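Task card 7
Instruction: Convert sequence to structure tokens.
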Amino acid sequence: MKVLQVHNQYRYNGGENSVLQATISSLRSRGVAVSEMQRPGLNGKTSALNKVGLFFSGLYSLPAARDMRRILCEEDPDLVHVHNLYPLLSPSVLRTCRKAGLPVVMTCHNYRLVCPTTILFRNGRVCEECAGGREYRCVIRNCRNNFLESVAYATRNIFARKLGLFSDNVTLFISVSRFLKQYLIAAGLDGSRIAVVPNMIAVPDSIVDAARGKYIAFAGRMSEEKGLPALLSAAGSMPYARILVAGTGPRMDELRKASPRNVEFLGFLDASQMVAFYRSARFVVVPSRCFETFGLVAAEAMSHGLPVIASGIGALPEVIEDGVTGFLVESGNHQKLAEKMKVLWDDPDLCSRMGRAGREKAVREYGEDLYSSRLLSVYEQALALTGRSRHKNREV
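Output:
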């Protein structure tokens, strides 16, 4: 089998970029021929003229469609797997694939199909106003805090929905959690075309003893929806506990200035540094304010044998079992968060027990073998639905 992976990278190297690279590596290790069509994320400030160009390329990019036709001729894939298409690729590439008779699988890493800003979050709270074909509310609420950008994002979603660029050209959608699948169904997508394939994590060979951890850990993007202010407030009531924060993002300087003295910001950590970061922690906190579609940090922490305290919203309750692999708390409630943090910090034996339970779940449900098996099964379904068979010389 030969698969073309399609992705427009993000400015900040977050979970979606990492999942894509892990997917490519896993498929290749299993004998699947993988080719790539990727565009880099935008870096730095963009001029007004370039923003106009990005707006139109996001709606329907003829250059991207031409590039897709060329790549399909050169690579001759059996199937196309799409991730993010904005702003440089656009759904134009989907039509190109359909015209070529190729099945298209699209992983929904976020809520882009129902929310112009992708995260169902505005002004510090969950926002679902655009779901159900009401993208104009993105303009009314100025969700991007920039009127022209809000118009652009809303127009992009309306254009794609009205013309059926996703619904008519994607053979099967992949949801990374049951929560996301149900949300997409409620928003009008056909549930029979949505397969649930939880994200894969790299499970380390050995487990750590969480009881010996030296600090409380947070890893994530420095943005409002990740809920770091709640952790900083809770940290203020635990001056004796060291708290390390890994990641970068638009609010990093602001959050650093507002943090108590026992909180240390480490900035961006590469893959090897993240492993060391997890393995010296006692537990991990995921205080998200938004509906996480999966909870990659939580699953990664569990794979190392760490308990996790997380907000009980979105897909996080699918990953963390309350009272078994960690604790779930009300999103934004820094007092409840502090209570659970104190429970784990003061009870090393409980950390060890929960860490071992988390490790068992991570190995059982998020390992590479199971992920690849599920993904290849979706590929085979998509091939069958389009009446295609993979090339005989590309059998897996």
